[in-house]
Amino acid sequence: MRIFSTWRDLPAAARGASVALGNFDGVHRGHAQVLAATHAARPDAPRAVLTFEPHPRELFRPDDPPFRLTLSVERAAALRQLGTALLFELPFDRAFSAMTAEEFVVEVLHRGLGARHLACGADFAFGHRRGGNTAFLAERAEALGIGLTLVPALTDAEGPVSSSRIRRLLQDGYPERAAALLGRPWTIRGPVEHGDARGRTIGFPTANVPLGRHLEPARGVYAVRVRLADGRALPGVANIGRRPTLGEAPKSRVEAHLFDFAEDLYGQEVGVSLLAFLREERKFPSLDALRAQIARDAGEARKLLWQGPALDPPGLSAADP
After folding, report:
1. Does 320 fall in a domain?
2. Which of 17, 52, 267, 281 is 20 to 30 A off residue 297, Cα-Cα?
3. What are the beta bridge partners of residue 160?
4. What is the pLDDT of residue 204?
5. Are residues 226 and 195 in the same domain?
6. Number of domains the chain is built from
7. Are 146 and 15 contained in the same domain?
8. What does each C-alpha distance from 88 to 185, 224, 255, 303, 307 come to in angstroms?
C-alpha cells in the first residue's frame, strides 16, 4: 500500500482509483463494507481510501479527552489488511477545513485524485462547516463523470456498527464485544517507556505504554496479546489505569506483563491488544496484597489465553467484510 499526504501532483499510478471516503477511526466491519463496495463498483480500478489526520474532532475540540480507536499507523495497517492499495491521508488543519464542499469535490477528488468512483456512508459530510452532504456529492460527481455508491450502515441486533458504539463498549469494559464489531481485538500502539520499575521489584516486570491520543478504556486488568516490533505476538496480562496502590499517577497508562519473557523492550513500538477484561482497578492495602492479586490475575489470563483462538474474532479481508 502506498501512502500519500497530499492530493496535488500525484504520480499517474496513484490517480484513477475507486475511492472510499471517511474518517475510518477503528476500521470496523462497517468500514470494511464501504471498502468492499468501492471495489465491487470498479474492480478494474485501484482500491483507495481518502481520510484525514488528525481526526477533524481533534482540531475543532482540542480540549476533549482522547477518543481515537486507531492512530495513523494502526489505521493504515488495518486498511492494508483489507486490500487497500492507495491511502490518501490528508492533513486536516484550519486551511483545509475552510475548503468548500465544491472545492473538495472538484480540486481534491476530481482534479487531484482523478477518482473514477467514490463510496461512502449515507451520513458522510464534508467541506467548510460540513456544507456538503451525500445529495450534493451525488449531483457533483455525476456532473464530473464520477460514479458514486452510498453504502447503508452495517447493523446487527443492537443497531448500527459505529466507532461511537465501539468506544462505549471499551469504556464499559467489554473488549470482546468491541472486537466482534472491529473484526479484530482492539489494540493500543505506542513506544515502551521507562517506568519506576516497581513491577520488577514485586516479581512482575511490565512494559509501560502511554495511552497518548487513544481512547481510555475501562480502568482495570486485561488478558492481552502484545505484538513486538519484530512481529512476535506474546500473551500477557495488563493493567490500564493510574496504579492507586503505588501512588496515584497523573495519567492512565498501560502496564503489560508478558508471560515467560525477559527481553529489553525499551524504545520499541508495540501493540497491546485487549482480549478480555478481568477486573476493575482498585487500591490494595499493601504491596503483598497487590502481588497476590497480580498472581491471580496472571493465572486467570493464562487460562483464558490458553483456550486458543476463541478470544480472537476472525480477521477482516477484502472479500469478507
Report:
1. no
2. 267
3. 155
4. 84
5. yes
6. 2
7. yes
8. 25, 32, 34, 42, 40
